[in-house]
């Protein structure tokens, strides 16, 4: 094994561990998402056609190979090395409309589908093969990822290598661990790329289910690739059929997709809906991605400026050293240094301009187009389809009135294409990285969805009557529409057929024809077949879809409502301020002495638990001796509250403590003395705040810290919700220029919100007036530095 490893020292490496190949593949929980990664690569390579098909290979695990063949720009040997460098992508730029950004899709997608893949690519006069096999690494016991990467001349088929030994090792590994056992078989794969350039990816040794069958079912439907073990009923078609998923994968398809030799009828969703309407949405909330770009541009600008400064310094030093030396060599050296300094300065100026442009763009609001329409062909397939750079990320997302589960907004489909600068997708392209901003997007779509529902007047005319008109006669929402000819014609009249030319890839809208209601158009349909004479040529420009524009109408508040809302907010802020003022921070023993002589606290579950917790964690201070007439008094066992929830009944009068005894209780007594309690003859029965024996205290869990953490989490959630509400209010104020400016709200700190949360639960320790001397209850004080005297920390307890 050591000898074998030493033979691979000259081969290309992926610069990562073998274990990461498996870990990286697990990011794709949705298997079709892994297949889509390879389709994305073809689209980014400007392919006009991709064929996805299978070839039977009984000797391989899964019994077939899955192939992806496109006519894109292909790769030369140098570009192919970028494939194995994880995270390297030439497509990564904020203005890019390409889907790939991370340089990870091919590896993560292919390793999710199978254990091994081999890639054949053609570009210019070169043929390149790339082989990535987990089987090879497992059998050879390799931890470092080694990738054979041989290449040949297109015309002569001779190897392009300066190291014959390296070429021999690479081809030997391919023949041993791939399905192709000779150079001739490799050339046969290259011959499948019939165009001048293109790429073929073959994945084999496919992943299997627990029953030993492949995860992808290619037997049930010979024209499709299905998700094995998924029932047809109750599952969205895009979750079961890759043909259905590929049809809506791109918001504006410009690439022909063939599955098992049959063309996929790709869709432009906005053209498949009844009464589509677009709503312009502008917001300043989407800043996360733009802030990242500004930070990155600032970093690059500083580096470029430093390089330009260094080059200019070098130029000045060289000019001073050469002086009047006008020899030919000196002038050549000086000119070279001057040109280098000038180019670096230009680069620095350019990066500075980019930074300024991004800083300006950061402050500008982002505009999105929300398109809504009713799916009268399959009304149960409704929800939001969210695209990123034209690629589908989320589908069938319910929002707004659709979350209520009624018939309101039922059957409505929403479509939005979010640029990369507004929201960034996750690595597997099945979600968005910033969950908070994505929730805000869905919330905004829900508001516009409700407006669309009003604008269509479906509810006013009768929802049931509307669906009856299009053939939905069953009471079951998921039941398909009637196939009677009159209903078919009614649906066809409302949604004209939009079809893509197989030659120029332009989309054409066909005029309605009664005899074409159930017509099946050929896969090879071209513009010449268009009955519309103005659109029957490939050189005719594509007509844009003219959608009516809707406007979100917000209910304007009256001056009285605004005044009432403002008064309520001021009241809330005042309550929080008062709660904050009632708390005292203790940082030393000296602060204890400055406290009022009387400490009051409402008897709550939290304080009683904190009292018992303090008994366990520290030695309790010794209490003064009892008076003679109470020494032999019979004690009453502590009673538990009937309810775990603290009541809001007024607390009993606080016990009164004089100054000397309070200080005595705060200081530890001599070890010889025994702890006893002094109480009046009219002492009430012990409550949950009464001291309990040490044994009972040790049997109870320390719940005070847990209660404190729960309060803090609740407060943080409340804080986040309030921040979101404040941001939304600021947006509304910016949009509505006619509204008057309201008074500034009292700033809220996290500390004030914590105190407010505690105040609402009736647990804040209040400062009290100095007490009169009299009969005393026991006062227990636990010192903790630093600590706060409030119910959250529960560090001063009185019973």
Structure commentary:
The protein is 37% helix and 16% strand. It has 799 residues and is α+β, with helices and mostly antiparallel strands. It folds into four domains: 266 residues, Heat Shock Protein 90 (2-Layer Sandwich), CATH 3.30.565.10; 202 residues, no CATH class; 76 residues, Orthogonal Bundle (Helix Hairpins), CATH 1.10.287; 165 residues, no CATH class. It has an eight-stranded mixed β-sheet with strand order 7-5-4-8-3-2-11-12. Strands 16-15-17-14-13-20 form a six-stranded mixed β-sheet, with helices on one face. Strand 11 and strand 12 form a beta hairpin. The longest helix has 36 residues. The relative contact order is 0.07.
Q: Could you tell me the strand content as a percent range? A: 15-25%
Gap between N and C termini, in Å?
A: 76 Å
CATH level 3 topology of the largest domain = Heat Shock Protein 90
Number of helices: 23
Protein traits:
799 residues; alpha+beta; Heat Shock Protein 90; Helix Hairpins; 4 domains; six-stranded mixed sheet; 23 helices; 26 strands; Morc_S5; isopeptide bond; hydrolase activity; ATP-binding; zinc
Brief characterization of the structure:
With 799 residues, the protein is of the alpha+beta class. It is 37% helix and 16% strand. Helix 2 (18-25) packs across helix 5, helix 11 runs antiparallel to helix 12 (328-363) and helix 17 packs across helix 23.
């Amino acid at each position: 094994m050591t000898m074998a490893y030493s033979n691979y020292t000259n081969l290309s490496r992926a610069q990562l561990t073998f274990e990461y190949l498996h870990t990286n593949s697990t990011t794709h929980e949705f298997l079709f998402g892994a297949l889509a990664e390879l389709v994305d690569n073809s689209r980014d390579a400007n392919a006009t056609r991709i064929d996805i098909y299978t070839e039977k290979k009984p000797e391989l695990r899964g019994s077939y190979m899955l192939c992806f063949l496109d006519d894109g720009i292909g790769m030369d040997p140098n570009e192919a090395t970028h494939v194995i460098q994880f995270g390297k992508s030439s497509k990564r730029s904020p203005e890019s409309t390409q889907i790939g950004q991370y340089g990870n899709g091919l590896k993560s997608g292919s390793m999710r589908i199978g254990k091994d893949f081999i890639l054949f690519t053609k570009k210019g006069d070169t043929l390149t093969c790339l082989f990535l096999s987990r089987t090879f690494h497992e059998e050879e016991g390799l931890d470092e990822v080694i990738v054979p990467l041989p290449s040949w001349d297109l015309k002569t088929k001779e190897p392009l290598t300066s190291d014959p030994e390296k070429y021999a090792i690479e081809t030997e590994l391919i023949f041993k661990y791939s399905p192709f056992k000779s150079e001739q078989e490799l050339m046969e794969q290259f011959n499948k790329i019939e165009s001048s350039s293109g790429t073929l990816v073959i994945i084999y040794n496919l992943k299997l289910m627990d029953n030993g069958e492949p995860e992808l079912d290619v037997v049930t439907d010979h024209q499709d690739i299905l998700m094995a073990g998924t029932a047809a009923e109750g599952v969205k078609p895009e979750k079961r059929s890759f043909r259905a998923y590929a049809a809506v994968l791109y918001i504006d398809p410009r690439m022909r997709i063939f599955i098992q030799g049959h063309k996929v009828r790709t869709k432009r969703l906005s053209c498949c809906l009844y009464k589509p309407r677009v709503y312009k949405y502008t917001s300043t909330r989407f800043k996360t991605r733009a802030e990242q770009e500004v930070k990155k541009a600032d970093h690059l600008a500083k580096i470029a400026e430093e390089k330009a400064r260094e080059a200019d310094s070098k130029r000045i030093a060289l000019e001073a050293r050469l002086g009047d030396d006008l020899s030919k060599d000196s002038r050549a050296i000086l000119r070279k240094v001057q040109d280098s300094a000038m180019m670096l300065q230009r680069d620095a100026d350019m990066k500075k301009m980019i930074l300024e442009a991004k800083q300006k763009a950061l402050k500008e609001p982002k505009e999105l187009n929300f398109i809504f329409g009713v799916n009268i062909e399959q009304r149960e397939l409704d929800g939001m389809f969210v695209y990123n750079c034209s690629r589908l990320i989320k589908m069938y997302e319910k929002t707004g009135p659709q979350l209520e589960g009624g018939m309101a907004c039922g059957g409505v489909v929403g479509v939005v294409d979010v640029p990369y600068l507004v929201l960034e997708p996750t690595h597997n392209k099945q979600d968005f990285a910033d969950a908070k901003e994505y929730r805000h997007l869905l919330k905004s779509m829900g508001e516009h969805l409700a407006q669309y529902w009003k604008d269509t007047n479906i509810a006013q005319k009768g929802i049931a009557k509307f669906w009856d008109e299009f053939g939905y006669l069953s009471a079951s929402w998921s039941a398909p529409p009637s196939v009677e000819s009159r209903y078919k014609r009614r649906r066809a009249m409302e949604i004209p057929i939009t079809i893509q030319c197989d030659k120029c890839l332009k989309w054409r809208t066909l005029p309605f024809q009664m005899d074409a209601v159930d017509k099946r158009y050929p896969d090879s349909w071209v513009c010449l077949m268009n009955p519309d004479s103005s659109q029957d040529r490939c050189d005719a420009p594509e007509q844009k879809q003219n959608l009516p524009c809707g406007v979100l109408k917000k209910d304007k508040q009256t001056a009285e409502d605004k005044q009432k809302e403002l008064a309520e907010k001021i009241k809330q802020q005042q309550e929080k301020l008062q709660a904050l003022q009632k708390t005292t921070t203790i940082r030393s023993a000296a602060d204890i002495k400055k406290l009022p002589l009387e400490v009051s606290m409402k008897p709550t579950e939290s304080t009683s638990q904190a009292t018992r917790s303090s008994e366990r964690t520290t030695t309790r201070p010794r209490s003064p001796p009892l008076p003679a007439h109470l020494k032999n008094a019979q004690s009453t066992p502590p009673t538990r509250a009937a309810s775990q929830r603290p009541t809001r009944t007024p607390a009993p009068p606080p016990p009164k403590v004089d100054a000397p005894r309070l200080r005595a209780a705060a200081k530890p007594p001599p070890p010889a003395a025994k702890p006893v309690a002094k109480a009046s003859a009219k002492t009430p029965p012990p409550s949950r705040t009464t001291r309990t024996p040490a044994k009972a205290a040790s049997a109870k869990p320390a719940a005070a810290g847990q209660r404190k953490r729960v309060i803090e989490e609740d407060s943080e959630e409340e804080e986040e919700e309030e921040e979101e509400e404040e941001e939304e209010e600021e947006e509304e104020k910016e949009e509505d220029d006619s509204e008057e400016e309201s008074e500034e709200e009292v700033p809220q700190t996290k500390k004030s919100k914590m105190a407010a949360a505690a105040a609402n639960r009736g647990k804040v320790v209040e400062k009290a007036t100095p007490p009169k001397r009299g009969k005393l209850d026991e006062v227990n004080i636990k010192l903790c530095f630093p600590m706060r005297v409030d119910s959250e920390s529960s560090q001063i307890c009185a019973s």
